[in-house]
Design brief:
single chain; 194 residues; alpha+beta; Alpha-Beta Plaits; five-stranded mixed sheet; 2 helices
Length: 194
């Protein structure tokens, strides 16, 4: 089976929708949890840390993004193939592995106008929200990704590292990696007979 042209982007959209829905569900269960940010999008490349405030209201809300970190052929998922290609025409690996990065940024507590550091209470609240964000993102991926395949067995994926990023530029957040198995690659028609 060949990799469909929109397959990579469709999984990115599905991941974004899944995580956003899970954040909103959590906001309904936990007091003072901000839920899914108004700014939630699939982005090309590493997301810019330019919107920790919610652009819809100007209040703390954050920025949720999904991007592709890398793609590679795999005959034994999740291992990357290192076979020489081109010897026998188009011989795609049975799987294309795609590593996605889910990044959720929120406003970090800042020093006061007089230069005093944020209070311990402010830091503890930011840590609480960040820790909840990390758990929600991980759980969302574990629950939603299997259902993004028409296969009875579900979609194969490997949940990667989750790490806290920042604070930097007034932002702090979570970065979660996940590598998803998609059907191989589609060779373009070249007119060359293998």
């Amino acid at each position: 089976m060949a990799l469909a042209a929109l397959a990579v982007h469709e999984i990115a959209d599905a991941i974004l929708a899944c995580v956003c829905a899970a954040l909103d569900e959590t906001a309904a269960e936990i007091d003072d949890f901000p839920g899914c940010p108004c700014r939630a999008c699939v982005v090309p490349g590493t997301p810019a840390w330019d919107s920790c405030e919610d652009p819809c209201t100007g209040e703390t809300g954050g920025q949720l993004s999904v991007n592709v970190a890398r793609m590679y052929p795999s005959s034994s998922f999740p291992a990357q193939d290192a076979e020489v290609q081109g010897v026998r025409g188009c011989t795609p690996a049975p799987i294309t592995a795609v590593e996605y990065v889910v990044t959720l940024l929120r406003c970090a507590p800042l020093p006061t106008e007089r230069g005093c550091p944020p209070s311990c209470d402010e830091l503890a609240e930011a840590a609480r929200i960040t820790h909840v964000d990390a758990a929600v993102i991980m759980n969302a991926l574990l629950c939603c990704l299997p259902g993004t395949s028409s296969s009875r067995r579900g979609r194969k994926f490997v949940l990667g590292q989750s790490r806290i990023v920042g604070p930097e530029g007034g932002c702090v957040g979570v970065e979660q990696r996940v590598t998803v198995a998609l059907p191989g690659c589609k060779c373009p028609e070249t007119g060359v007979t293998p």
